[in-house]
Amino acid sequence: MAIDFSSLVLAPNMDAFARPVTITPLKSQPNAAPYDARGIWTMTSVGIATEDSGILSSTTLHFGIRLSEFAIAPKQGDWITSKASQIPLAYWQGDIDPNSIIDFIIDNFSPDGQGGSQLTLKRVTQ
Q: pTM value?
């Protein structure tokens, strides 16, 4: 018996934790208008040891989506736009005004095999 993970787990989690964004489908739907979507922000931290015994730290921002909420899923090269206050506090605190709008490009699209996908994002600076 197959379990519908998307309906049983992803949908209630999206209803509880998802934040709004705008997706500009530059690659998935060229020439299409931006559209509203939702997803769950997460961050991962990575520490890399350097040759001089130091640690180089980096943080990666991810956006989890439920694929059934999209007629055409976003893909690498599409943009995601969000108000800074909708992004995890650890990412934007400091130099970024919480009312500012921040653009990201989807750097990687990783389906989880259970109805969702994790989008790895890079900030677009202009």
A: 0.88
- In DSSP notation, the chain reads ----HIIIIIHHHHHHH-EEEEEE-TTTSTTPPPEEEEEEEEEEEEEEE-TTS-EEEEEEEEEEEEGGG-SS---TT-EEEEEGGGS-HHHHTTTS-TTSEEEEEEEEEEE-SSSEEEEEEEEE--
Residue 41: strand pairing partners: 63
Instruction: Indicate the number of domains in the chain.
Output: 1
pLDDT digits over 66-86, tens only?
999 999 999 999 999 999 889
Assign residue 65 the CATH number of its domain.
2.40.10
